[in-house]
Amino acid sequence: MFKRTTLEIKYKRAGWRFVAPAAVLIFILNFYPMIRAFFLSLQSGLGNNLHFAGLRNYVRLFQDDIFLSAFGNVLVYLVFQVPLMLFMALVLASILNDKKLRFKGLFRTLVFLPCATALVSSALIFKSLFSLDGLVNTLFISWGILSVPKNWLTDPFWAKVIIILTITWRWTGYNTVFFLAGLQNIDPCIYEAARIDGGSSVQSFFRITLPLLRPVILLTAIMSTNGTLQLFDEVKNITNGGPGNATITLSQYIYNLSFMYNPQFGYAAAVSYAILIMVALLSFIQMRVGDR
Amino acid sequence: MKLKKIRLVTVVEYTYLVLVCLLSVFPFYWMLTAATNKSSDVITGKLTVGMYLFGNIKSMLATVHIGRAFWNSLRTTVVGTVASIFVCSLAGYGFQVYRDKGKDTLMNILLLSMMIPFASIMVPLFKMFSTVHLLNTTAGFILPTVSTAFLIFFFRQNSMSFPLEAIQAARVDGLSEFGIYARIYVPIMSPTFAAAAIVTFMSSWNNYMWPLIVMQSQDMQTLPLLVTGLTAGYTTDYGLLMLSVCIMTLPTVILFFTQQKRFVEGVLGAVK
């Protein structure tokens, strides 16, 4: 009896030793900076010359045109890009899940391929394709669609479209991976039964696939929202936030505030908390809607 | 009538699929052709493989330290991946094999860290790392991504299939607790380790935002930093740029083509 309890204690201790390094690292490198960011957000000043400012940074957010522009841009990316991408991925996954589909392996590989590229690579490729002397302009002029080359990336509307295009290109296959895995857990008999009852494939998509995949759709929606709120690599490298902050994101604004000019770490930390609150809020809303 | 309807759907399906695949592949194809053409030919819309690859290689070697950047990328990625897999697999193993109430609570707390956007902690992290002189070091590059709740959870979920009898038997044989992990768990779970290694390698290789902040010295520049610097000038040499993008992209693409199954497992992570 005595021996057994000492053994149990020994195993328990061993268990804590296994989890300790990872847990300590997460506490030091995730939770602690989060707390520090909060205290930082209550301070104001340039460089390391900071003084207590209370909630003034948070008030400033609402009067700051660049912040509001970044906030608006992120919402635009979120509202247009995420649903478009998830819908495309869902349709792709249902087609790829079809037992009768030929060349399935090849199609799957090609659909997944973009998610093996760096965000930076995809950004630079799309930037080059849409630049003033890029391929898109060359082709559009030779086809007679345009008469003079269009500067896509300095047009506030088209710059956003191209960023959305780049993100969609990079991440649609990634989401398809999740949907395909979710579909493979659905019993094919359900589709069979629907077909016998005379349902079309469009009907089974909306009546069977969508409801049964709800948990996976929720997961991908939360991941994509999270990713969009933190958008940085693409915007930094395609437009650098321009023209005139028309494409800037919250992450890039934090970067600019902290590392581009005279660092305003305190205010940057307040913007950080704005992102954190949005991530938490949107995930919460999505979970409530998704669980219904 | 019925037959015709089914066929129409099939035609639409294949058309959509082929279209998406073409759009998927085209940017890669363009990248490869541009890397083999002179910038002036790329601008005129040349879409076939050219003869200027060696010219681009020559101008690349003359203008940028591609070898140094490749080595920096490779070193930080390999060290980071090995460290990350080791720390997270230990924890995942610990959380599952020695499972109790306290550890489950801790796991749930750690999972909360997945909700913290990196951009939100970037500024304090930078200040912390600059205080302890970790800027421009390999350790500084890898530390923030060594321990991630995602990987810990991935290992914990996969450890559920690990037979507990094997542990009992090994204890009887006198193996230490760490010995059981190293000698029995690691070999049995090697597919899980491979899947985790592939996704970790890819994300570390492609990491851009943190290196941009922490690797400010030219000597420590990784590939993404070097490549993005090439478009900073007034005119862009597309041949040179796309050759560098190729060099950065090919390792992960090759990994993807050869290890697709493991890659998919790793992406799916703990969701099954």
Name a few traits of the molecule:
heterodimer; A: 292 residues; mainly alpha; two-stranded antiparallel ribbon; 13 helices; B: 272 residues; MetI-like fold
Can you walk me through this structure?
The complex is a heterodimer of chains A (292) and B (272). The mean pLDDT of chain A is 89. The longest helix of chain A has 40 residues, at 2-41. Chain A is mainly α and 292 residues long. Chain A is globular and about 70 Å long. Chain A folds into 2 domains: 2-41; 65-291, MetI-like (MetI-like fold). Chain A has a two-stranded antiparallel ribbon with strand order 1-2. In chain A, a hairpin with a 2-residue loop joins strand 1 (43-46) and strand 2 (49-52). Helix content of chain A is 74%, strand content 3%. With 272 residues, chain B is mainly α. Chain B folds into 2 domains: 2-52; 65-229, MetI-like fold. Chain B has 15 helices and no strands. Chain B has helices spanning 2-35, 39-43, 53-63, 66-97, 101-112, 118-131, 138-146, 149-159, 164-172, 177-188, 190-206, 209-214, 223-229, 238-258, 260-268. The longest helix of chain B has 34 residues, at 2-35. Chain B is globular, with a radius of gyration of 24 Å.
